[in-house]
């Protein structure tokens, strides 16, 4: 459907009302009622040059299509063939949309498009073509043959098309043998080529030098032949993920000529080292889910403009990222090291780093200077490591004055870390072993908006007086799945969302929410509440309350909100 909308958007000017052209100059002495415009049965013709027969379950190519048609859409039908005699009449066609039919190569004669000398856009995706058309018009600009069964392309399918810009061939059965060396000869304006989800075993040579985006993900590529990318100096995005690339399938010249390359995705391959010869223009390098054991600084010297480096799910271990290995990347913004078996935070990281993502490693210690080299961090994710309270130094976060998000979920902390940055907006501490909350670690966090303490071992008596006092901006507090027996008192005034599900709460008193007048959503499901457990006055003074979830308690709990409270969705039940 989006293709039909695109066709209309491509047409300049407002859509005229049917018959308007004839009505503007009625013949003298004749009826002023314009004659009906010729249009195939059940189709719509919103303007004189547009015929829309989308989704009509057509099995036969419609007749009575006006010769003036420039834009014909037949997508989402049951067509199996295109009759040459019908197409040959439509020599003025600029757009032909055959998306999602049953057209086979046998139903598409070789001469089908010979007379369509003005055709610019052809969409034949989601059909049953086994080979591409042997000839497409020289005037073509966009060709979409994706999601067929195409095994072979011919020299004049896409060759000799000086205006051709975009070719989509993904989700077919193309191999290197099915793409001739001269497939794009004479088509020097192609900027987008999608060959993903095919059967290529090596990167095809002789691709258009004008390419800006090349999609080759989800193939069987194990090698990029030497010089295969030597002419693509305008290439900005290269997608090679989900292939079978090894170190021997690349060399130092593979990417060195790509002087415009900004995005390179080599994830889900079999690389053991960072590729050599990376260009200076590269901004995003995705190497996740390979077998990389070592990151060498020498391999990154050329890519000094790198901003995002993704190395998640490799095999770096304790020695795979030595101190200073990333020092050449002075402008690095984000570093992903998820799931690498690292036992400590890498040392001597680039000073301008803004996001460090290290979950699911083996980090057990956070020393006083482990993060000193990255004072500009705004996001730090150390979730699901092996941190204990005894091995997190009280000055570990001292220099992180710009930190806004800290994720320490899934560790073995028994108390809140000391010295948390006062500029924090988000603090995640769920799934630890917290047994107490004290005011001191939370002192000064007057910008904190979200605090997650779910899945710990907290009881109301373990929450010290004044714990919430300085959390003046806190809007979301998650205390679910702890051991609370009632709603903690003196919660922050700015609170809008409170999670208390999965505790042991058996009673909600009339003053439970006096300190939280802005509350919008309250979750009390899976506690020990009964019909008479909640005081009728508990929700007075909460004019913004929209959600009260009490499902999963021993008895169905009916909540009566004050009459002044706007009604919203409420959950309840046994």
Automatic annotation (TrEMBL):
InterPro entries: Leu-rich_rpt, Leu-rich_rpt_typical-subtyp, LRR_dom_sf, SLRP. The keyword Signal applies. Coiled coil: none annotated. Residues 1-19 form the signal peptide. Keywords: Leucine-rich repeat, Repeat, Signal. Gene3D superfamilies: Ribonuclease Inhibitor. GO terms for cellular component: extracellular matrix; extracellular space. It holds the Pfam family LRR_1. The keyword Membrane does not apply. PANTHER family: AGAP008170-PA, PODOCAN-LIKE PROTEIN 1. This is Podocan like 1. It comes from Macaca nemestrina.
